[in-house]
Design goal:
The protein is mostly helical. The chain has 21 helices and two strands. Helix 6 runs antiparallel to helix 14, helix 7 packs across helix 8 and helix 10 packs antiparallel against helix 19. It starts with a helix and ends with a helix.
């Protein structure tokens, strides 16, 4: 098992090499320039769409715009924003956060293109129901000869959207913040018990299908963001003198890497991009799986809604997590990693109560992610094997929660990172090839919008 773990870690490091960085950052930059910065020019319009102004229940799809974005955010605003940020700071230094920002801003354009494609080229499953996602815009947009690429995406996506990381970190924080301080002897059995409880909660929602997932996400996502942000702002404004210096540290370390990475700027950049991908999933193709189910016949409209994701989860939530760790000085404690580091920052910022507030936030963050992931995986299973196998997949998904609860962080995060790297290849390649189609659709949509508002 140790050899397998080392292989996974090495594979992940190789996968996140220069070629993938060029594909994600270069491809996203191309989308931004090619679109003439459409995503940023129409931010206000995107918010108007999200508020329901353009919702039409008679249009094809399963979720309204808000539910589609909530389902996507339920997977992206999760442990990647709390634990993933801590991992980024420990492995790449505070400067990694700067490259997360850069990657997220570029990711706004990537999400606009990929999620517009999710509506433009929807397919149908074996029951005739409309489906969307990279596998469908690959085959419907590029042609049936590209099906092997769609199959490849579906297979690696099943690994990428597994519950391993979320469950592992949720189990870790319950163990370190609740069980151990209260004198409970922890080990394999307590981790397994935590996993069983999580699996039971997830099963109740997942069995209900996409509509129940959409409703649950729509209710929980705003709640989890508010609870977390209130606590973070309290900590930050309790250390007002450290906020500006925290930003300065992030920016200076981004170009020197002196804080942790020993002056290796390349290592800082790679860490930032990896953790940004873990956070907002831009270019990985998971968001199109959710937005492809939106009730809309306007592809560009859904692309505009989807592009808000990286702004919310990386620019806002990840930045606040990073500043919390930095202003409390906990980033200088490399002996702890992952969610435990964030918990210690909350303990220092809000003595006694901080870790428990974090646990409440984490429970919602992790559970909502665990609700969204099986929906994504179910779409992949449907594409590969048909809808009749989705229930079997849900059983396997729920059972794998126990694996995440009893495994080590380093191997799990490397496994998910490796899968994400492989998911980016078919998603970005197909989106780049189909980008002229997106721009043609965008010109049509904005011309009509201009006429309607004239």
């Amino acid at each position: 098992m140790e050899n397998i773990g080392q292989f996974i870690i090495k594979f992940s490091n190789i996968a996140w090499g220069t070629p993938l960085l060029i594909l994600l950052l270069g491809g996203g930059s191309w989308f931004l320039i090619y679109s003439r910065f459409i995503p940023f020019r129409y931010l206000r319009h995107a918010v108007n769409i999200l508020t329901g102004r353009y919702d039409n229940p008679d249009e094809p799809g399963q979720l309204n715009h808000y539910q589609a974005l909530s389902t996507a955010l339920a997977s992206t605003i999760g442990m990647g924003n709390i634990s993933g940020v801590a991992v980024a700071i420990v492995t790449g230094g505070p400067g990694a956060i700067f490259w997360m920002w850069v990657s997220a801003l570029i990711g706004v354009a990537t999400k606009f293109f990929t999620n517009t494609l999710a509506i433009m080229y929807r397919g149908r499953d074996d029951r005739g129901q409309i489906q969307g996602g990279p596998m469908y815009f690959i085959t419907e947009g590029l042609g049936k000869n590209w099906k092997p690429l769609a199959v490849f995406y579906s297979v690696v996506c099943l690994i990428g959207v597994s519950p391993l990381f979320q469950t592992n970190q949720l189990t870790q924080v319950i163990r370190d913040v609740i069980l151990i301080p209260n004198g409970v002897k922890t080990g394999f059995l307590t981790n397994l018990g935590t996993g069983l409880v999580i699996a039971g909660i997830v099963a109740l929602v997942v069995i209900g299908g996409v509509k129940r997932i959409g409703r649950a996400a729509g209710r929980l996502v705003p709640l989890m963001v508010v609870v977390y942000l209130v606590a973070v702002f309290y900590i930050l404004f309790s250390h007002p003198g450290n906020i500006l210096s925290g930003f300065q540290l992030i920016i200076s370390d981004a170009f020197s890497g002196k804080a942790v990475a020993g002056g290796a700027m390349g290592a800082v950049l790679i860490t930032g991009v990896r953790r940004a991908a873990f956070s907002n999933e831009a270019g990985l193709g998971t968001a199109p799986l959710a937005h492809g189910a939106a009730k809309t016949s306007e592809p560009v409209r859904e692309g505009l809604v989807a592009m808000l994701g990286p702004i919310i989860d990386t620019i806002v939530v990840c930045s606040l997590t990073a500043l919390t760790i930095i202003v409390t000085g906990m980033w200088q404690h490399p002996d702890v990693n992952g969610i435990t580091l964030t918990a210690e920052a909350f303990e220092k910022g809000i003595p006694v109560y901080g870790p428990y507030i974090l646990i409440v936030s984490i429970l919602i963050f992790a559970i909502t992610s665990l609700f969204a992931f099986p929906y994504y995986g179910g779409k992949c299973v449907t594409y590969l094997f048909g809808t009749r196998w989705v229930k079997v997949y849900h059983v396997i998904y729920t059972a794998s929660i126990l694996v995440g609860a009893t495994s080590t962080l380093t191997v799990i995060i490397s496994l998910i990172d490796g899968a994400f790297a492989l998911m980016a290849i078919p998603t970005m390649v197909s989106a780049l090839l189909l980008s002229p189609k997106v721009m043609k659709e965008a010109k049509r949509y904005f011309a009509r919008l201009k006429e309607e508002t004239a």
